[in-house]
Every structure is written in structure tokens, then in C-alpha cells.
Write a structure and sequence with these properties.
heterodimer, A: 379 residues, alpha/beta, Rossmann fold, Alpha-Beta Plaits, 2 domains, six-stranded mixed β-sheet, four-stranded antiparallel β-sheet, elongated, disordered N terminus, B: 279 residues, mainly alpha, 13 helices, globular
Chain lengths: 379, 279
């Protein structure tokens, strides 16, 4: 199954509306921010001002959206046999993938796999040597068509040192065609969202790494873009800030298409609907997170020393195959999904059998885990 | 958003950046100090001339200047016009024209290369057409240079008036005219500087390359002069000061057209290359 088929289908031409319980979407389909605030998750970074600021940020989107030339698309990003060469070196080799609008999609791979190159081509920083790349139906170089519809957090792009945070964000908002009287509000709102409301007058050169990363994230989110590309959004951050950034990304889930490139596989497994695994410039696997981790086809159970009633597990009707590693005391149960059988049912049945036979269970997981899957697929 | 709006936003930010940076402030102060020092020096020379040559009347000096200017610009009308120009202002004008490339190279070497070095440029290329970014960068640099030279000229006008080198009306009217003449020439230099800066990702390399290019243009100009090859002299932007200061409208138009054309060529080339390159 291709990546686009695997990812969740959402309304494509605009960010999907927030759940009805949370908000009433405005006429143009933009999610109502007040509802998010009411739901209590508008400020994942525990910012008390975010709830007040968020509506202002959205107002101009509703107004500005009238001017935007939107082309309805189901596929937010489409790569067709994209190749990028730097001299004799091929960084990305014939990669094809599709990302459905509204999904959270991960780009995974070891160093030198071509993640950042692929990401940079999606953002229009690099131009493909061969192949076609489309973002919302346009070439990433068509700035006027994509302005304000795409936000990017580049991995290693420094903020302009002489600018103050506030004026930098206002300048970015101006260039995104935000109405002049709404630029400052939009900038303040997005800065509050990353818990940086106190940095308005601080020079970018004075920001710590974590603060700078959050300001970079703020500029990527300004104007509520339909597609947000995040390259290593938590790299180099301390665990608390990394957690907050993850929460912020999660809060955007469903409001836009998110592409996240990261080495942190646990993070990607947690936030992504689907992913593409790259190795040496080639696409080695893509699909939904369930498919990649085989979480819908196998479960893993670790047993502590004691009874291990493997034959009884094997005899369960939904179980296709069982592998038992005596040394690691790990039981892998394979099953066929469908006809009322899912991973949760199998877990329940297997645990019941094990507990009935005095087995001591120390851990249960679905699938192989993204990390293991990536290890299998990449050298 | 129209490309014009993009250019305006980029240029506005560039101006803000220039006058906030230590480099911009230092160059402004140096320009003011240098301009004032040169003016005072020239005024002192004038005073010395008056003291040492008491029998030489202002009319005789004006006549001698008219002859010299006619010979220099090959046009009697221009010679006559420039003979009325306050001498100090005329001298400062030529010094400004001569030093402007230095000011531009120091102000503009990291104009684009500085943004490319740490990939800061990526925040802009997402939101502006690359050509608009380049034109905005050029416009920002040109405006900065123009503002610095205007400030320097204004100080010189004041010094001239205070020291009685020229009547206020003459000092200001000639001062403004001479400053305006520097604008098309500095526009070309800014175009060249922006082009060179957009080629290199390391600012120090861009600085050296800018110096090298400016020097090569000057050498080409000297070769053109030495061997009477006019075509070679025309690649050097300062050549057009003689056109722009000329009393003949056709010469003036030629100089302006050449400066506009060269600026468009350099800014166009840098925009094209910037659009095609990876960032």
C-alpha cells in the first residue's frame, strides 16, 4: 500500500475543521480558534495568554483567505521519481511518495539517507535534478501560489541576529500577505503559542538554542498554513522543551498537513499517521505507522522467568504463528487482521491464556516498534 | 502579493538592519568624519590660495576653472556651468564618486552572502519570489548608501555655509544636484556588489571578490583611457559622472540610461542566478 493510501484521508483544500464538539468552523472551513482555546489545548506550552491571543491569529486567516487562490487538492505533497544530485553524488534517488492532506507524515532514515534533501526540495530550497515535486498542486518554487499556505521549520537556518523576535515575526507575517493591521496580533499569537510571549523585544542573536528553535517554530506556524514542514523540530532541545514542542505539534494535528523529519523514532511513532523510510537516497518503505510497525499483524510479549505456555497460545484460533525466544523470553504472536480480529482482541486472548497458566508478564507491545523496523530496513 | 510589495518589505528590513548594525553605524560615522575632514582641508586650501595669491580675483579663478572644466568634459556649456559651482562641493563630489565603491563594498559584501552563510535566506525564499528578494536587497543597499552619502553631503553643505565658502542657496542647490548625480552611479556599484555577494556563501570571500571585481573594473577603465579604447572605459560606472554632470541633455540622458541599463543588467543577472541556485 502506498503512503497516501495509508494515511488518513482528510478534507484537502483547507485545514480540516476542528471537531464539532470543540468549534463551529467558519464559512471558509478554517478551524475556529476560540473553540480550541475553550477545549483547553490551544496552548500546549502552558501559556495562559495563548487562549486570548489565538482568536486574533485566526481572524486574519478568515479575512485573508478570501484573497488566496486555493486549488483543492487531496494530496498535499506529491513526489514523482524525484532525484537530486550534488555533482557526482546522488542524495535522493527516484523517490516517489504522496502525502494526503491533513495527515502527519514522518521522514525517517539514518544520517545521509536523504531526509533533509527531500525536505529541502519540498520547501523549495533545493530544486530536483529530475522528477516532479508538488506541494498543494504547485511547484514549491511558485511562491506566490503557496505564500501563507506552507510553513517551514528549517533544521539549520539561523534567525537573523540583528532582528528582534517581534519585528522578525511581524516581517514574516507581512510577507505572508497577512493584512497590515493583523500582522502584530498574528505574530504575538504564534509567539504565545510557543510560550515565548516575553521574547518580543529580544534580539534573535540573544536567544538560547531552545528559545531560537521555538521562534523558528513560531514563524513556521504563523498564518495557520495548510502544510507545515518541520525538520528535526526537537533536535538539541532539553527533554522538557522537546516534550512541549511535541505537544505543540500534536495540537496542530488535524488542522494542517504536517511533515516531520526526525531521527527521534519514538517521537515520530507517537505523532505520525504515516511515514517514509529513506536509506541512501532511496525510499525503502512507506505506509501508515501501523503498517510500518506491523502493529496490526503482530504483538510482542516479554515474560519473566517462570511458566511459558507457548503451545496453548499457538492453539488460539486467531493466531497464525508464534515465535518464542527462550533467551530473551520474548513471545511474538502473528495474527491475521480482519473479520472482527484486531490487535487488542489478540492481546486480550493471549494474556488471558498466559495469566491462566501462571506466566509472569513483564511487557506487551504491538508490532515491532518503529526503531526495530528502521533497523531492519536500513544498513 | 505583488513583487513590488515584496521588494518594499525586503528593502525596508534591509534599511533597518543596516542602520542598526555596528558596521552600518561605523561606516556612517566614518563617512561623516571623513567628509567633514575633507571639506575643512579643502576650505583651508582655498583660504591659503586667497592669502598667497591676493592679486587673483574670483573672476580669474572662475575663468580658469571654466577652461579646465571645458577641457575635462569636452563641452564649453558644461565648463561654464561648473565654473559657478562652489569649488569645495565640486571637489567633494568627485571624492564621493571615487570613494563610493569602497563604501558600497564594505556595506554590501554580506548583503546576500551573510544570509546564505547560515541559511537565514530560507525564511525569505518561502515568502518572496527570489527575484523580489534580490531586488529588495539591492534597493536596501542603494537606499542605505544614498542615505549615508546624503548625510555626509548635508554636513559638508553646512560646513561650507558656516565657513563662508558659498552662499547658503548656492551651497544647497548645487549640493543637492551633485548628490543626485551620485545616485545612478552608486546604483550600478550596488548592483555589482549584490551580484558578487549572491554568488558566494562566505561573506569574507564575497568581500575579497567584491574588492577584486571593483579593482578589475578600474584597471579596465585605466587601460581604456591609456589606449583610447572608449568601449573599455564604459564598463567602469564612474565614467558616467562626466555624462551626468554634463550641461547637454543628450549627454545627461546617455549617462542616466547607461547607469540604469547597467544596474538592470547586474540586478537582473543576480536575480536570475539566485533563482536557479540551491539554497
Amino acid at each position: 500500500m502506498s503512503a497516501d493510501e495509508a494515511t488518513t484521508t482528510k478534507e484537502a483544500s483547507a485545514p480540516p475543521p476542528a471537531p464539532a464538539a470543540e468549534s463551529t468552523p467558519p464559512a471558509n472551513g478554517t478551524p475556529a480558534p476560540a473553540a480550541k482555546a475553550d477545549a483547553g489545548d490551544a496552548s500546549p506550552m502552558s501559556n495562559p495568554y495563548a487562549k486570548e491571543a489565538a482568536p486574533s491569529a485566526e481572524v486574519f486567516v478568515a479575512e485573508g483567505a478570501k484573497k488566496r487562490k486555493k486549488k483543492p487538492v487531496e494530496i498535499a505533497i506529491r513526489l514523482t521519481k524525484v532525484t537530486k544530485r550534488f555533482g557526482a553524488k546522488t542524495a535522493v534517488d527516484g523517490v516517489s511518495l504522496k502525502v494526503k492532506a491533513g495527515s502527519v507524515y514522518g521522514l525517517i532514515g539514518p544520517n545521509g539517507a536523504g531526509k533533509t534533501t527531500t525536505f529541502s526540495m519540498m520547501a523549495g530550497f533545493l530544486q530536483p535534478t529530475e522528477g516532479v515535486l508538488e506541494v498543494l498542486g504547485y511547484s514549491p518554487m511558485q511562491v506566490d501560489e503557496l505564500r501563507s499556505r506552507i510553513g517551514v521549520l528549517p533544521q539549520d537556518a539561523l534567525l537573523p541576529g540583528t532582528d528582534k523576535v517581534g519585528e522578525f515575526l511581524v516581517h514574516m507575517a507581512q510577507l505572508q500577505d497577512v493584512p497590515p493591521d493583523a500582522c502584530e496580533e498574528a505574530a504575538r499569537a504564534v509567539l504565545s503559542e510557543v510560550d515565548g510571549r516575553d521574547w518580543w523585544g529580544v534580539k534573535c542573536s540573544s536567544l538560547s538554542h531552545g528559545m531560537a528553535k521555538r521562534v523558528q517554530l513560531a514563524q513556521a506556524l504563523i498564518g495557520d498554513p495548510e502544510v507545515v514542514l518541520l525538520d528535526e523540530p526537537t533536535a538539541g532541545l532539553d527533554p522538557r522543551v522537546a516534550y512541549e514542542v511535541r505537544q505543540l505539534i500534536k495540537s496542530r494535528k488535524g488542522r494542517c498537513t504536517l511533515i516531520v523529519s526526525s531521527h527521534n523514532l519514538a517521537e515520530l511513532e507517537e505523532i505520525c499517521d504515516g511515514a517514509a523510510i529513506l536509506d541512501r537516497g532511496r525510499l525503502v518503505a512507506s505506509g501508515s505507522m501501523n503498517e510500518l510497525t506491523a502493529s496490526s499483524e503482530e504483538i510482542r510479549i516479554k515474560l519473566s522467568p517462570g511458566p511459558a505456555p507457548i503451545p496453548l497460545v499457538r492453539d488460539l484460533p486467531m493466531v497464525k504463528r508464534v515465535e518464542w525466544d527462550e533467551e530473551r523470553r520474548e513471545l511474538v504472536v502473528y495474527f491475521e487482521r480482519g473479520q472482527g480480529v484486531d490487535a487488542e482482541q489478540v492481546i486480550g486472548a493471549v494474556l488471558w491464556v498466559l495469566l491462566q497458566n501462571q506466566a509472569r508478564i513483564s511487557a506487551v507491545s504491538k508490532g515491532r516498534g518503529l526503531e526495530q523496523r528502521v533497523m531492519e530496513l536500513t544498513d | 502579493m505583488s513583487p513590488f510589495s515584496e521588494v518594499r518589505f525586503v528593502a525596508q528590513r534591509e534599511l533597518r538592519k543596516s542602520f542598526r548594525s555596528a558596521k552600518g553605524i561605523v561606516l556612517l560615522v566614518l563617512s561623516l568624519l571623513g567628509g567633514t575632514a575633507v571639506t575643512l582641508l579643502l576650505a583651508w586650501v582655498q583660504q591659503l590660495k586667497r592669502e598667497k595669491l591676493p592679486n587673483v580675483t574670483p573672476e580669474m579663478i572662475e575663468s580658469a576653472r571654466e577652461d579646465a572644466m571645458t577641457q575635462a568634459f569636452g563641452d564649453p556649456a558644461t565648463g561654464k556651468m561648473l565654473s559657478h559651482t562652489p569649488e569645495v562641493l565640486l571637489a567633494v563630489f568627485f571624492i564621493t564618486i571615487w570613494l563610493t565603491p569602497l563604501l558600497i563594498s564594505l556595506l554590501g559584501f554580506d548583503n546576500v552572502s551573510g544570509d546564505m552563510q547560515h541559511k537565514t535566506v530560507r525564511y525569505w525564499t518561502l515568502r518572496t519570489r527570489r527575484a523580489s528578494y534580490m531586488v529588495g536587497k539591492w534597493l536596501g543597499l542603494w537606499t542605505t548608501v544614498s542615505a549615508i552619502t546624503l548625510t555626509m553631503h548635508a554636513v559638508i553643505w553646512v560646513v561650507c555655509i558656516v565657513r563662508g565658502e558659498a552662499p547658503a542657496a548656492s551651497a544647497i542647490s548645487w549640493g543637492v544636484r551633485l548628490w543626485i548625480i551620485t545616485l545612478p552611479i552608486s546604483a550600478v556599484w550596488c548592483g555589482i556588489s549584490t551580484l558578487v555577494s549572491s554568488i558566494f556563501k562566505t561573506p569574507i570571500v564575497a568581500l575579497l571578490a567584491t574588492f577584486a571585481v571593483f579593482f578589475v573594473l578600474w584597471v579596465v577603465f585605466l587601460i581604456g583611457l591609456r589606449f583610447n579604447v572608449n568601449a573599455l572605459t564604459y564598463v567602469y560606472p564612474n565614467t558616467y559622472d562626466g555624462f551626468l554632470i554634463n550641461a547637454r541633455i543628450d549627454r545627461w540622458m546617455t549617462g542616466l540610461a547607461a547607469c540604469v541599463g547597467m544596474t538592470a543588467l547586474y540586478v537582473g543577472a543576480s536575480s536570475y542566478m539566485f533563482t536557479k541556485r540551491d539554497l
